[in-house]
Amino acid sequence: MFRKTEDMLKKFEQEHEVYVEARDQKSYWEVTAKMPRKIDSLHRIHRTKQYISGREQEGNVLIIQNPEVFESYTIEQWGGLATFDDFVARTLEALKEDIVEYETDCKAGDEVQSPTDLRAV
User: Fold this and answer.
1) At a CB cut-off of 8 Å and minimum separation 6, what does 6 contact?
2) CB 43 within 8 Å of CB 115
3) Quick one: CA dihedral 13, 16, 21, 23, positive or negative?
4) What is the pTM of this model?
5) Residue ranges covered by each domain of the chain
6) What mean pLDDT, rounded, does the chain reach?
7) Partners of 77 in the beta sheet?
8) I want to staple 62 with a disulfide (CB 3.0 to 4.6 A). Which of 24, 32, 52, 67 is the partner?
């Protein structure tokens, strides 16, 4: 991973208050994002989302809505993703939209209320 990509991840985390971890594995690329819900509680509730692709995937991206419930996923075609850094940049753009959607859901009360309900998401 290039220094530019590391800086981009740090800046994104600071600006959006989201925890982002990126991995450039031998056979696949993965970005995991944890979006905290802003509530006054002892427990911190996060929505976790994973984006997975790779060099030989021709731009196909597996998006897992909740990694604990693997049945909930989508596959999107993002076009040419030649490098890991391209994948990370496109993922951060997609995350910006997810953050807005997540915050809207939280304000509307659609999000789970306790950590024991996380599997129902």
Assistant:
1) none
2) yes
3) negative
4) 0.77
5) 3-107
6) 80
7) 60
8) 52
